[in-house]
Amino acid sequence: MQLSIGSRLKAERERLGLSQLAFGELGGVKKLAQLNYEKGDRFPDAQYLAALAKFGVDVQYIVTGIHSVSSMSQDETRLVELYRAAPVVVKAAVLSALTNGSSEERAEQVIHGDVLGNVIKGNVAIGAGGIMNKNTKRK
């Protein structure tokens, strides 16, 4: 579901932890104008959006619904850079890990050549036999 400009504007305001009054002041408007923008009764002009951009507001997100790279943290930016440079199999593994394997789009694994051994589905605990005593001290 695509959010409206007003909803995205409110989301940015909340992300920055500002009241409607404070956020409106950053853009050079009164609280009532800010309220009307967020409700979708009015649309912000370029001057207002340019003023907000100076304070770290993601104007691209407000207008298009797509977050700009510059609004991401350094960690997020690095993650995107690494992801874009990664081979397809690594991208599939990353998506699987981040979605906890619950993604509807699962990567198909194709294995070429002879396969020796067992195929196991589900969680498997692998251990070596024997008794392990954690209370013993080394000499």
From TrEMBL:
Residues 9-62 form the HTH cro/C1-type domain. It comes from the Bacteria. GO terms for molecular function: DNA binding. InterPro entries: Cro/C1-type_HTH, Lambda_DNA-bd_dom_sf. SUPFAM superfamilies: lambda repressor-like DNA-binding domains. This is Transcriptional regulator. It comes from Morganella morganii.
